[in-house]
Structure formats: structure tokens, C-alpha cells
Known about the structure:
Elements: E1 2-9, E2 11-13, E3 20-22, H1 24-38, E4 42-49, E5 56-66, H2 71-85, E6 89-93, E7 99-103
Antiparallel strand pairs: 1-5, 1-6, 2-3, 4-5, 6-7
Amino acid sequence: MKLAFIIIPHEGPTGIKPWVKPLTYLINRTINKFMMDFGGCTFYQVYGQWKGDGKQIKSTKIEVAVPDKKLSAFLEWADEVVEVAGVEEIMVQLPGGDIKFIKRAN
């Protein structure tokens, strides 16, 4: 097993600025999904910044130990998260340490 993580912002766009939609439910779904699929996870609040706009983005980083044979399950969920959140990209660390930005399809 190797450590992987996903970072999910606490708020996502609604398409009508400055209003945003809370993503707490998506964070909780991800935690529950990782507990079911991988036996548990660690999560904590982090802050980031996107494209130099100066605004701090409150997010939750969720870490999970992923067996090699379950990498596809982790990546499928990351694809789901970015679509549901409605954000441009979600950052993940793949097992082994490589960073990947999962882009929204639309």
C-alpha cells in the first residue's frame, strides 16, 4: 500500500458569483467512501490559493492508504469529486507520490 490524497475545497462555484455552494456533503461522502473502500482515512483542514487571486481557499485534505490493485477505485472517485464539486480541477497525490490535477470533463 502507498499513501494517496485528495484535496476538496469547502465551497464550489454555483455559476452566479459571488454565491458559492458548500461542499461539506461531498467531503463527508469521500471520507465515508474511503472508509468503505480502503478501511479508513485521515483528514484535516488545509488552505490553498488558486491562480494568484490572493484569496485563501479553505479545503479538506483526505489521505488514504491505497493498495496497488485499488488505484482505479481511487481515481474513479477523484473523477466523481471534480464533477460533483463543479470546480475546474482537483489536486490528488497518486500512490507513490506523483501529483495529478484531475480536470472536470465539462
